[in-house]
Amino acid sequence: MGKFIIKTLYCFVLALLVSGYLLQNVSAQTPNVSRISSQPETPLHSVNVAPALTARAAIAIDADTGRILYAKNPHQSLPMASTTKIMTVLTLFAIPGTSLNDYTVVTKDDLVGEANMGLVEGQRIRVLFLLYGALMDSANDAATAIAHYAGSKLPGSGDSMAKFVQEMNRQATLMGMEDSNFANPHGLDNPSHYSSAQDLAIAGWYAMKNPTIANVVKLSETTVEGNYFFNISNFIRRYPGANGVKPGETDEAGLCLVASASRFGHNAIVVELNNPNLRTESDLLMDYAFNQILDYEKPGVNRQLLLGYIGLPDAGKLRPYRALVTDFQRNFSEAARYLLALQGLFAKVA
């Protein structure tokens, strides 16, 4: 009888190990944010208490699983300034028939003031350069020219800008952005133009999943075919492992940021809206996010205390089993010790 019990326990633990391995293989097929490692890894500041941010709204997520790590008014609809341009570029890629190799002619309507890349009416310019200008220089004229170009590819009659903005909102809905309404492609203040921290985290996640966008927003500066572009994001130059995505500022929106970073084999996205202390508190929130991600891996952590998961396109695949696989992997060493103990006990009984 004793041998039977030991064999049963042994087989049970072995079955758990095998099932974990199989699930791990399945989860490996799930698309994931590209991981960027830096050598050597900069030490992480210890931030174990949720920071009291001065931002009107903020969120931090584990970009590999969608797990919410921090939230302050995450669904509050607020002006979001030039973080809008993330959605502008995502919409460009979503419209059939567009190409970064196309050329478009700059119109007078494209010459929107404030931040710009110096476009001139009648100028013939490659769409690729508009992409760099919108994402790095935060150029309003580039974002507007993108909208006119891509909007002209949409079916139906009417103004290309109106069609593009309508498509921005349609794409936002498809992405699960429930608190947003877009009125323009550049982000200048408009009562009908707003988003939320959670919605912008979703947009930022999609942006970092797009290889072209991700390869642009990680640059501090670059020259493309003789054209110089400078990333206005100080976060890119300042924070260890920073690789995106877009800051913004207007009178109504205040200082805003959608930020992405990769550290210790993990990816995190933070969003802060209307934060007068954005420079220090964006770093603080990102540090807190990585502390939460790494602490989650430690044995004995109560993983029932979750803030939830942000909506991701893989949500139907991620939620049922990825948490199980992750937890199993994190506790694998403990399970292995039990298995070895059972093996030893079984050998003695046998």
UniProtKB/TrEMBL annotation:
Coiled coil: none
Residue numbers annotated as active site: 82, 85, 138
Keywords: Carboxypeptidase, Cell shape, Cell wall biogenesis/degradation, Hydrolase, Peptidoglycan synthesis, Protease, Signal
Binding site for substrate: 246
Residue ranges occupied by any Peptidase S11 D-alanyl-D-alanine carboxypeptidase A N-terminal domain in the UniProt entry: 50-276
A Pfam family per the record: Peptidase_S11
InterPro entries documented for this protein: Beta-lactam/transpept-like (IPR012338), Peptidase_S11 (IPR018044), Peptidase_S11_N (IPR001967)
GO MF annotation list: serine-type D-Ala-D-Ala carboxypeptidase activity
Superkingdom, natural source: Bacteria
GO biological process, one term: proteolysis
Family: Belongs to the peptidase S11 family.
Protein name: D-alanyl-D-alanine carboxypeptidase
